[in-house]
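Deliverable D5.2: sample structural annotation.
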Amino acid sequence: EALAMSPGLRREGLRGALLSWDGQLEDDARLVVGIARTAAAHGARVLTRVRVTGLTGEGAEVRDELTGRTATIAARTVVNATGVWAGDLVDDIALRPSRGTHVVLRASSVPGLGTAVMAPVPQASNRFVFALPQPDGLVYVGLTDEPVDGPVPDVPEPTEAEVGFLLDVVGTVLQQPLDRSDVVGAYAGLRPLLDLPDADGSTADLSRRHAVLTSPGGVVSVVGGKLTTYRRMAQDAVDRAVVVGSLRAGRCRTADLPLLGAAPREQLARVEGPARLVRRHGTEAPDVLANARAHGLSDAEALAPLADTVPVTRAELLWGLTHEGALDVADLLDRRTRVGLVADDRARAVPVATDLSGLVVAGAPTHPDNSAG
């Protein structure tokens, strides 16, 4: 049974496997955009390309990164949810950033992988490297846990040592060895781990639990945590903000508030639209296709993959431009989709993304009130 699910497993010494289920994520970029658009649908105003340069309990100093213009935004209460940069905006927040790196493989490098596979890290307690098959023909292998010293970079970069570590560890459970030539991309993120007074040892030993802190000036900061607990983190932060700002509010609704496009599986099965669009956009799939038609594309043009190795469609990129606040090619390929994780795929997609950006700029309708950055 184990080999039927993951035929690439090393057969020598294999006696069986443990099967478990965990949260399934289609695409982290889609999740982030979906959260922002849902917030906008409930009255939030989402500003993109705007950097916060100063923060108090009464508002923020901001700078438009496109024009350089500065402004002050006043607020009755302020939440600092800026991850590893939280301590740059509020004093007395001590963090120990940790870099987590993934490498990206083609599915052909791990043939037939039908489930995630966990490989134990040698000489480590309760640490694993995961091989995670993705819907679009890729496999993510991760992740590392490396302390980050000095200034926090805007874009963290994986190191060759981390890439080698991941390949070596996951290779211990695979029949077919992996080497550097199998790697078609790599990316890294930073964990905002709390530096507690009694903490010692490596960042791998620090708690992943989140904390909500209130500064003397009244700024509510939420740090730590994991993607899988984002709703609980938001609930705790907003509950604290309501108290700090003496705001009137009803009960928290996040536990049963669906994101735009979300629906029970049986309802999604009845949505009339291409399977790929339903998988990635849910009940909005027919709208994504209708939007492409409104811009003069035939169904065949709208739904054709951008390239042989890039199953993302023109319809999805157009939706990013008209409904998700994408401003340029980088937004489309790096932040509304994950095409940019593989440099060769990105290069193939750039001409199409550029043409579509020009099509929208030339006068097609957009929906800025329902956009995300």
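Annotation notes: The mean pLDDT is 91. Residues 17 and 330 are 41 Å apart (CA to CA).
The annotation will be released with the project's public dataset once the embargo ends.
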